[in-house]
Design goal:
single chain; alpha+beta; OB fold (Dihydrolipoamide Acetyltransferase, E2P); six-stranded antiparallel sheet; two-stranded antiparallel ribbon; 15 helices; 8 strands
C-alpha cells in the first residue's frame, strides 16, 4: 500500500525516505504477535461493539508462554453464557478462549475494569436504541456510526450497498460539510473553525469505534485541516499516503482488513480522478472499480448493479443519516417512529426484490482469481484512458 501511495513523480530524496518507511513497516510487521490457534489463551481487551450476544473486541494483551505480550487485533465472537456481569461497549474485559481459523470460541469472559474511550460509542448506541425501540434500530445506528451485521447486512451486501454502512469518506465528508455550513452562519475565525472541526472529528471517530475506514477518512481530513492551519501545502495524495503509513506502523495486520483495503483504494482512486474531472457519476464508478477487486477476494462475488444502486440510494442514505442524528439527540413522536420503521422496511423489501431478480455473482475456485485479475486490469485501464483524455484536452 505504501508503494502505491508514494509511487508518483517525486525526487530521489523522497523515494529514499519511502524505502526507510517501508523498512520500518517491515520491522514492525515481523515483531507483531498474533493469537496462536488451537491453544487456550487469555486476552485483555476492550469491547468496541456489541449486538445482542455478538461482540467485537479490540485486544491489548495476550497471555502466551507464561507471559503477557502486546497484541493489537480485533476479534469477533458470540458469548451467551449466563453471568452477573453486564458487558457493555467500552468495558475492559478479560477473556479465555481458543482460536480456530477465523472463529474464536470463548470459555470465560469477565469485566476487568469499567469504561474506556469506546464507552462513548456505547452511550450513543444506548441513547438511539432508547429513542427508537424498533427492530430496524441497527440500520438507523449503523448508517452513521458503522457496524451493520447479521441478516440486514446480508441484504445490503448482496445489493452492493454494504459500504454505505461502513463509516467512510462519504459519511465523514458529509459531517465535515455540515460543520462548515454551520460555521458560515457565525463569525468564528477560520483557524478556530479548523481546530473545532478537528476536535469534533476525533469525537465522532470515538463514536464509530475507530473502524479502519473511519480512521482513514477522519485523519485525512484532520491532516488537511492542519495543512491549512500551518500553510504546508501538502498534496492530498501525500496526506492519504501518510495516514496509510501511520496506520500500518501502528498495526501492520490491518493490511489484511477489508475495511482498510477498500477504504484506501477507493480514496486513492477518487483523488486521482478528481484531478481530471468532478463528474459525480465518474467518481462513483472510480470508487466502485477500486473496491471491486477486494469484494471479489473477500466476499467471493459482487453485485452487477452495485455502483448504480449506490448512486440511486444516496438520497435515501441522506434521509437515514438525518433520522439517526435526530434519534441520538431526542425521541420523536410515536407516529414518526412508526413511519421511519415502515420506511426502512420498504427499503429492505425493495432490495430483497432487486436481489431476487438482479443477480449477485458468486465466484468459486479459480474464477475468484480470474475475475480479480480482470477487475484490476479494468481499474488501471479506466484511469489510463482518463489520463490520456485529460492530456488531449489540456
Amino acid at each position: 500500500m505504501a508503494v502505491v501511495f508514494f509511487s508518483f513523480n517525486y525526487s530521489f530524496k523522497t523515494r529514499f525516505f519511502m524505502i526507510i518507511i517501508l523498512l520500518l513497516v517491515f520491522l514492525r510487521t515481523i515483531s507483531i504477535i498474533s493469537i496462536p490457534e488451537n491453544i487456550e489463551v487469555g486476552i485483555l481487551g476492550k469491547i468496541i461493539d456489541k449486538n445482542d450476544n455478538f461482540y467485537v473486541v479490540k485486544t491489548d494483551k495476550v497471555y502466551i508462554n507464561e507471559q503477557w505480550e502486546k497484541l493489537n487485533e480485533k476479534i469477533y465472537f458470540s458469548y451467551n453464557k449466563f453471568s452477573t456481569d453486564k458487558y457493555e461497549i467500552g468495558n475492559k474485559i478479560y477473556i479465555v478462549g481458543i482460536k480456530n481459523n477465523d472463529n474464536f470460541n470463548i470459555e470465560y469472559m469477565a469485566n476487568s475494569a469499567k469504561e474506556s474511550i469506546y464507552s462513548f460509542r456505547g452511550v450513543i448506541k444506548d441513547r438511539l436504541y432508547n429513542n427508537f425501540p424498533y427492530e430496524n434500530k441497527n440500520i438507523i445506528f449503523s448508517v452513521v456510526f458503522g457496524g451493520l451485521r447479521g441478516k440486514d447486512a446480508e441484504i445490503f451486501k448482496n445489493s452492493g450497498l454494504l459500504h454505505l454502512f461502513a463509516v467512510s469518506g462519504f459519511h465523514v465528508y458529509l459531517i465535515y460539510s455540515i460543520l462548515y455550513i454551520l460555521y458560515s452562519k457565525t463569525l468564528i475565525p477560520i483557524n478556530f473553525r479548523r481546530v473545532l472541526t478537528i476536535i469534533f472529528l476525533l469525537i465522532y471517530l470515538s463514536a464509530t469505534g475507530f473502524s479502519d475506514s473511519a480512521v482513514r477518512a477522519s485523519f485525512v481530513l484532520i491532516l488537511i485541516e492542519f495543512n491549512k492551519i500551518f500553510g504546508l501545502n501538502i498534496d492530498s495524495k501525500n496526506i492519504l499516503g501518510l495516514v496509510g503509513v501511520i496506520n500500518l506502523l501502528y498495526n501492520p495486520i490491518v493490511v489484511f482488513s477489508v475495511g482498510f483495503l477498500m477504504s484506501y483504494s477507493a480514496a486513492l482512486s477518487i483523488l486521482i480522478l478528481i484531478e481530471k474531472t468532478k463528474n459525480s457519476f465518474l467518481i462513483a464508478i472510480s470508487a466502485f472499480l477500486a473496491i471491486l477487486p477486494w469484494s471479489i477476494i473477500f466476499f467471493n462475488g459482487f453485485s452487477v448493479l452495485g455502483v448504480f444502486l449506490s448512486i440511486a440510494f444516496v438520497p435515501i442514505i441522506y434521509s437515514l443519516i438525518f433520522f439517526s442524528f435526530i434519534y441520538t439527540i431526542i425521541p420523536l413522536p410515536e407516529i414518526i417512529n412508526i413511519i421511519v420503521n415502515n420506511y426502512i422496511e420498504i427499503i429492505k423489501y425493495i432490495l430483497k426484490y432487486i436481489n431476487h431478480y438482479i443477480m449477485y455473482i458468486n465466484l468459486d475456485g479459480d474464477l475468484v482469481f480470474v475475475f480479480y485479475v480482470i477487475s484490476v486490469i479494468v481499474l488501471f485501464l479506466f484511469h489510463i484512458i482518463f489520463k490520456l483524455k485529460y492530456k488531449e484536452e489540456y
